[in-house]
Amino acid sequence: MSDTAKPSDDNRRAAPDALLVNIAHYVCEYRTENIEVIETARYALFDAIGCGILALQSAECRKRLGPVVPGVTFHNGTTPPGTIYQLDPVQAAFNIGTLVRWLDYNDTWLAAEWGHPSDNLGAILACADYRNRHMTDTLPPLTMQHVIDAMIQAYEIQGILALENSFNRLGIDHVMLVKIASTAVATKLLGGDRQMIVNALSNAWIDGGTLRSYRHAPNTGWRKSWAAGDATSRAVRHALMAINGEMGYPNTLTTRQWGFQDVCFKGKPFLLNRNFGSYVMDNLLFKVTYPVEFHAQTALECAVQLHHTVKDHLNQISHIELHTQDAAMRIINKSGPLHNHADRDHSLQYAVAIGLLFGTLESNHYSDEVALDPRIDQLRHKMKAIEDKQFSADYLNPEKRAIGNRIIIHFEDGSIQQACIAYPIGHRTRRNDARPLLALKFKDNLSKHYKRVQREQISALMMAHDELLAMPVDKFMERWKVA
Predict the structure, then answer these.
(1) What is the tens place of the pLDDT at every residue in 358-396?
(2) What's the pLDDT band for 137 if we cut at 50, 70, 90?
(3) Torsion-angle region of residue 82: left (phi > 0), alpha (psi -120 to 50) or beta?
């Protein structure tokens, strides 16, 4: 919009923006019977909660959990997995969303805009559990089949909006899309009709975009680990208000000067290159073996592959080339000091250095203690990240969705060692390889928090497809309370 343009003085309200109507229609009408998609959603559910259980080992994470006001308990409230709190649905969503995302180990989606679709579980589980505990006088209780359906829908809304619309290039954080997707499905789970969903969505868009400054140097910090919890809790608040009769603002996207597109998107309309269905869940990316920012996943796999070859010759390395995609260049290409855990787990160079040194990467490798190892910075100083145009093209190609990285290690004698991987272990093309490893990851995460009998019961439920889908949501949530 030009500087001289003025908003219309016509106060007549038009029909709701098409995108709001489209999302509401999808949430009310769509359900898939595709067994593979449902199975992927089942793995995504348990993998995300398992990541949350592992996050409970972090003292920084535990500081953010519980009620807003210490000591306040919501009667018959939702207990986030692995905790003792009883919370209202808004704060339960914050807790669950924070747990799932804390370690950056949950599933992911990479497109023009990246993100983590399982961030939406905060709203989905909190609202479904709340409905079963407090709304059964007017609404039938929900089963885990409804949770799976809501997951598929929330993943789809977040992911399809991300395909062609790059919020990060405008400085807007991707949790904006978590808030939109969670608002839609939360309103439906709480019994909202199509108009209520449109109303709630309009308010979610009015919130505008969260700045990405906490994800990037020199400001990288803990907020990137609780931002999704904040977004999903905000979504529940909008859903509850819409259920209670809060009005909507039908043209919040397209109103000249004051709408989201003019204010936050430089006047550009949103682009949708496919209808909402189950595309995102079907093409979901799992973080199977390493808690690393996903644009660096294949780089880390390359580093682990090279570890045994180079571990005894680190001092003979002249320089290291990291060939990667444009997205990695913008998000995780970092030189100079890394100030904390959150800074390190979003550094391509740090992840590669750890892989070369140790042949693996675990959450504790981002700690201050490990970071003191002088060899890490010595290797980082020898690295140069370079965009590979083909990797960038394959990354955006909807038929490939590759996340390629190549490491070329140059030694002082002129010799080289290199590795190149296009598709990480969690990619759809490697799904069969990933499932047994996801089950092992899940069991290992549970072992950090639960005693043997309880974790065996939970692990059995993960594989009991029919029993899980028929289980009431509140009974499912009870399974996660520490016995």
Answers:
(1) 999 998 999 999 999 999 999 999 999 999 999 999 998
(2) very high
(3) left
CATH numbers and ranges of domains, the chain: 18-282 (1.10.4100.10), 294-424 (3.30.1330.120)
63 by DSSP, 3-state: which? helix
pTM: 0.85
DSSP category for residue 430: G
Pairing of strands 405-411, 383-387: unpaired
Q: Which of 167, 438, 386, 402 is nearest to 295 (CA)?
A: 402
Residue 457 CB neighbours (<10 A): 12
Helix (H) or strand (E) holding 321, with range, is strand 317-324
- Token pair 């399809």 is at which residue? 160
pLDDT at 29: 97
Sequence-distant contacts of 207-211: CB under 8 A, at least 24 apart: 207/179, 207/234, 208/260, 208/263, 208/264, 209/167, 209/170, 209/171, 209/172, 209/173, 209/176, 209/264, 210/172, 210/173, 210/175, 210/176, 211/171, 211/172, 211/173
Cβ-based neighbour number of residue 197 at 10 Å: 27
> Among 211-225, 241-255, 445-459, whose mean pLDDT is lowest?
211-225
